[in-house]
Amino acid sequence: MRYGGILDLSTVDFPKKLCAVVFFVGCPFRCPYCQNYRLVEGGVEVKPEEIAKKLRENYLIEGVCFTGGEPLLQKLDELAKLIELLKDYGLAVKLDTNGYYPEKLINLVDRLDYVAMDFKTVPEKYAEVTGKKDSYDKFLKSLKILVDSGVDFEIRTTVVPTITNESDLIRMGEILVSYGVEKFVLQQFRNEDVYDPKFREVTPYPREFYFKVGKKLKEILKEVIVRFEGEHVL
Ligand code: SF4
Hints:
- The structure is a single chain.
- The chain is an alpha/beta fold.
- It has one domain: Alpha-Beta Barrel (TIM Barrel), CATH 3.20.20.
- It is built from seven helices and ten strands.
- A ten-stranded mixed beta sheet has the order 3-1-2-4-5-6-7-8-9-10.
- The chain is globular.
- It starts with a strand and ends with a strand.
- Iron/sulfur cluster (SF4) binds next to loops.
């Protein structure tokens, strides 16, 4: 597995659990606002057993969050092995994903305890933001898998001016409702150290924008969360 390191303890990466975070290297997308772009290349090759061993010695955690990059870029059998080992240690497993690998997600979803999947923007802007023509179709396939699986999941959008405006977000909420999604998270965009230097000049929306749009979304969705300097359930 191509791996970039472990954060030993996080209180914010797994709902209601203390967790460690495993950073996998590699991503098929090139989102201009990506803050983890250094994890898109590089890293070291390790076996699932080596990662599991490091996590087994961590007595503070209740779970492990797989993030990246895109964790599902890794080989399916190695991801399955790592999940199996972590479960044997009594740890819950959360997956962060961009939704580009539905064929892997469908194989793993029943073994996961929580999934956070990105919804980048409205359909017509998707390919431009991700750099992949088929990224929206694959996102929808992954969305259907999550809804049908019964796993606890959230759909989340980093709200970036020039990529998503208020009407885009409302449309995205309507798309989610049409698929039976209950939980939509609006995440704060920070322009420091992002992949595309032009986006370092993009001024983030103010806090009030997130709450204004979040309240409108709450009229159609069961649960709306704003992550802006902390987590706010609307
Ligand atoms: S999907 Fe995530 S890790 Fe990949 S480029 Fe986009 S923001 Fe970065």
